[in-house]
Q: What sequence folds into this?
């Protein structure tokens, strides 16, 4: 069995290490903010050797990117409700829940930091960003295929995700009414 | 003459120190990102004593906030063109120029970092945010007084500023057409 197969075996040592390391990163980002801890501190908290972290992830930036993407995918999977309106509302509400949750701000700051933290950070951020935008575009394409309004993932980024991110960063509340209002502005049913 | 009067005397030692310290902060944020330098490093680069920085600004967070606010006010003063359309377009274009300029990304990251960097950072970010939102609301209120469309500063935050900030953070270009399009979406002349 090679390392890759072992990594994917549920409940195996590799999966356990992965979960411990992800948890350690999430806690450290939450406590100290991005950029204020080292691979050594992640490893110590996760109870693994530094070399295990470097062997598996290569760099702190790559690890941070994987943690952010895993959390986003787990907490805000792209919905498929059968209508664009349902998909947009479900997705917007899930993102709002996630970024206002216990370590939501840490996650937003991580995404922001990854997006502009030098060449390596940019690469990690780009991959994260491209993956999420691709998933979002697939959801919007399904609506277009059904004859509903054609939207671009960038429209959703600009007028649903960006306002929520900025409001959370500036300490404002996201009420369900506010989040629904963002969807209302963008989506014209029947258009 | 007390310290406060001296600080405001143009061309005096205090003004010179202020300019040197602001320049040092801008350079360090640009080179290393927010949070990766100390008051000591700012002071060394500005050629002043650490104690001068602490005496005048109290903390690194307060200094960073003042630098960000000064730059925003100098580079994007609120326009007063006589029409809401002119004001919004002028303001949006100025912000776009500023955040895509040589150290624009550093400024955006500083604003984001200040907004969520613990109790002291939050306070500094809050002051910066409240001051800018107040200026923006005054511009919008003038339009309302003229009988033009009534807009809230938060609408401009959500649908003009937030998309531009997020796009810059994710490395996307802001074309004049894109920026004008954001204004078009928000402002319905004659409304």
A:
């Amino acid at each position: 069995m090679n390392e890759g197969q072992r990594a994917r075996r549920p409940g195996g040592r590799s999966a356990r290490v992965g979960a411990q390391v992800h948890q350690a990163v999430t806690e450290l980002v939450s406590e100290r903010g991005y950029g204020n801890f080292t691979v050594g501190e992640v490893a110590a908290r996760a109870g693994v050797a530094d070399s295990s972290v470097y062997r598996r992830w290569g760099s702190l930036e790559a690890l941070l990117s994987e943690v952010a993407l895993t959390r986003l995918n787990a907490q805000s999977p792209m919905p498929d409700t059968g209508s664009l309106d349902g998909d947009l509302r479900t997705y917007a509400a899930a993102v709002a829940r996630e970024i206002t949750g216990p370590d939501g701000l840490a996650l937003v700051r991580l995404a922001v930091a990854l997006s502009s933290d030098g060449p390596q950070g940019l690469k990690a951020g780009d991959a994260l960003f491209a993956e999420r935008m691709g998933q979002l575009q697939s959801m919007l394409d399904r609506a277009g295929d059904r004859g509903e309004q054609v939207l671009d993932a960038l429209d959703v980024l600009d007028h649903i995700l960006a306002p929520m991110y900025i409001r959370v960063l500036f300490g404002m509340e996201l009420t369900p009414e506010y989040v629904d209002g963002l969807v209302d502005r963008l989506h014209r049913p029947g258009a």
Remarks:
- Residues 1-8 of chain A have pLDDT under 50 and may be disordered.
- The CA atoms of residues 28 and 41 of chain A lie 9 Å apart.
- The first helix of chain A runs from residue 3 to 8.
- The domain at 67-186 of chain A is CATH 1.10.357.10 (Tetracycline Repressor; domain 2).
